[in-house]
Amino acid sequence: MKIIKNNQRRDFLKTSALITGGAMLSPFSLPGAYAAGEDAIKIAVIGCGGRGTGAVFQAFETGHNIKLVAMADAFKDRLDQSYERIFKKYGKDKVVVPEEMKLVGFDGYKKAIEAADVVLIATPPGFRPDHFEEAVRQEKQIFMEKPVATDAVGIRRVLAAAEIAREKKLNVVVGLQRHYQDNYIQTIDRIHDGAIGDIIGGQVFWNDGGVWVRERQPGQTEMEYQMRNWYYFNWLCGDHITEQHVHNIDVANWVKNGYPVKAEGTGGRTVRRGKDHGEIFDHHVVLFTYEDGTVIHSECRHFPGATNRVDEGFQGTKGRAYMNAGHTGRLSDYKGNSLYEHDGENNANPYQVEHDKLFAAIVKGEYKFADAENAAKSTMTSLLGRNATYSGKVITWDEAINSDISLMPERLAWDAMPKVVPNEEGYYAFAVPGKTKVV
């Protein structure tokens, strides 16, 4: 087993920044069927829920000559609903998906990827390593949603595929869209330039009331039920510290120019305890310690009726920083004097910007984006935090990333059983800090 050491985090960030910052190669025809200047760019969407459908919209809104040629989803009704929404908005000139390319089931993604130049991957996160590996194997340009895996086994697969993608000069953009949001870019650039000195602490939050629940329906197999209600099962979602809070954790890594060496924390199930709430916690509080000793406080919870908070704040030796997804970016010294205030008016939608930049590079025949490695390591940071809250122990980065515990089912089929199943009363076992083994 390959041991992934801490100092590789810094090396990766330098490489990623070089590529995404514009270390441009001379224009060339990118791998895959599409050559710059020729015909339409063919796209396929893997995962036809709201995020996959939205990614297709955003691809079309780039204004380039793009056609949707294939769709894949485990569920026919989800695919059909997505197709209807897309076709209604964009019509037959852009939506060219024959019936045989509406691919339903666990393996349809392979054929969908084969038909496309650019692949939009937006399935539940547990499937992402499979789909990303295949898209890289077929040498496609890729947009992939976050997070990119739900266990360390999957993270290592994504990291390996990301290395191949770089070697093949495949653009990979990942939906950690704060990297494409101007207030974050401008504020963090100034932090890295020393505007508030060395970062010595920080707090990152995703506290809100929670998400949807999909109740069990008569006749569903256990596999279908869990996939319909995927947010509440770790093999599919990774828990909300990974599925949602990865955004804020990623900002902490971005600000620190690295990844934590260890984590400790607490969490549990306080208000969300029903049969349809699967195995995930409703709150996590984690202390991430970085190599220089900096400690970042990470907090996420799903408490209906409680105060919401989704933002990031950091303290440096000379001042403090504050950012949020509402286009705020602010730096000040400790006397309250403003050092920088981002003008958030009329800022571009970062969900659109990430597609604008990806397709602009493809059309020009440029290799610019290598997001997968940072996305994998920020996802791994969230898993490190989950390991700490589930176990109640201090967990190191090396212990977590080299864990051989796989959450994925042995077989993907409607009659197959996931590894976590309900008891006779219909409830699922969940982690117990102090008892649960995570590495």
TrEMBL record:
Domain GFO/IDH/MocA-like oxidoreductase stretches: 189-320
Gene3D superfamilies linked: Dihydrodipicolinate Reductase, domain 2, NAD(P)-binding Rossmann-like Domain
Domain Gfo/Idh/MocA-like oxidoreductase N-terminal: 41-163
One protein family per Pfam: GFO_IDH_MocA
Name this protein carries in UniProt: Gfo/Idh/MocA family oxidoreductase
